[in-house]
Design goal:
Largest sheet: 4 strands, parallel
CATH superfamily of the largest domain: 4-hydroxy-3-methylbut-2-enyl diphosphate reductase, catalytic domain
Radius of gyration: 21 Å
CATH topology of the largest domain: Cobalt-precorrin-4 Transmethylase, domain 1
Distance between the termini: 9 Å
Number of helices: 10
Strand content: 15-25%
Bound molecules: iron/sulfur cluster
Length: 277
């Protein structure tokens, strides 16, 4: 049996950077509060909790004077201000690409545009972006949510970083026709798209795919859906000890892909076992 690993796969730049900053802070302060789970991967969260990570649901759960961490998704300006005045030290792991979306939202709002954010209104990244808008805004998940008769004077458009480019383009094309003036910032990050394209390429060349990633990870679920939609038998696991070794028998080539929140050590653990097999 041969196996190949999708390329690129696993941690994106922003999450890798944030987790590196968190590990450094844990080494320095011993105990660090993260606002929300720092990564959608239970084994990695378990590892971080074992070395001092505390998860806070909101700023008031952070012990006064302690060390606090902002995850890659970022937070709103108001939350940041609250956190700065409560924590003794704040380690900011906000992905630089998410920071750009904050800056764009803020500048559009200051310039008087009604801001349109393409994304999931419940996602923490979108809630963070909205926190930089002072005036009017709306959040849409596709162009179908734009009323056919709606007319706008000045619209400023941007996107949650993980949205699909085609969905963004469709929304912009529609809004161009319904607005007097429009300003568009493409704030999509290609990391997610590149991981989806890599599993597509790989799935065509193997007779089974193992997707490694948290069951609470939306981007991992998407990779599973892509592989399944291409008709290749797919196994979704969180860690290598969940592999059904019988499932591998008779397969000549296996592809391995990992969600954007799956750390390297979990990938190495799986590929090490496959190599030994
Ligand atoms: S997907 Fe892109 S924007 Fe989001 S954390 Fe990763 S690198 Fe940053």
């Amino acid at each position: 049996m041969n196996f190949v690993v999708a390329n690129p796969t696993g941690l994106c730049f922003g999450v890798r950077r944030a987790i590196g900053m968190l590990e450094e802070a844990l080494g320095r302060y011993g105990e660090v509060y993260s606002l929300g789970s720092p990564i959608h991967n239970p084994p990695e969260v378990e590892r971080l909790v074992n070395i001092g990570l505390k998860i806070a649901d909101c700023v008031s759960d952070v012990t006064e004077g302690s060390a606090a961490f902002i995850r890659a998704h970022g937070i709103s300006r108001a939350e940041r201000d609250d956190l700065n005045s409560r924590a003794g030290v704040v380690v900011d792991g906000t992905c630089p690409f998410v920071r750009i979306a904050h800056e764009r939202a803020e500048s559009l709002s200051k310039e008087g545009y009604r801001v349109v954010v393409l994304g999931d209104p419940e996602h923490p990244e979108v809630r963070g972006i909205l926190g930089y808008i002072n005036g009017e805004y709306m959040v849409i998940s596709s162009e179908e949510e734009i009323g056919a008769d709606a007319r706008y004077e000045r619209l400023g458009i941007l996107s949650q970083t993980t949205q699909r480019e085609a969905t963004f383009a469709a929304a912009v094309s529609r809004l161009v026709l319904q607005s007097g003036e429009i300003k568009v910032y493409n704030t999509i990050c290609r990391a997610t798209i590149e991981r989806q394209e890599s599993i597509m390429r790989m799935s065509a060349a193997v007779d089974g795919v193992i997707v490694l990633g948290g069951r609470n990870s939306a981007n991992t679920r998407k990779l599973v859906e892509i592989a399944e939609s291409l008709g290749v038998p797919t196994l979704w696991i969180e860690r290598s000890d969940e592999v059904d070794w019988g499932w591998l028998s008779g397969r000549e080539s296996i592809g391995v892909a990992a969600g954007g929140s799956t750390p390297d050590w979990l990938i190495k653990d799986l590929t090490g076992k496959l190599k030994r097999l």
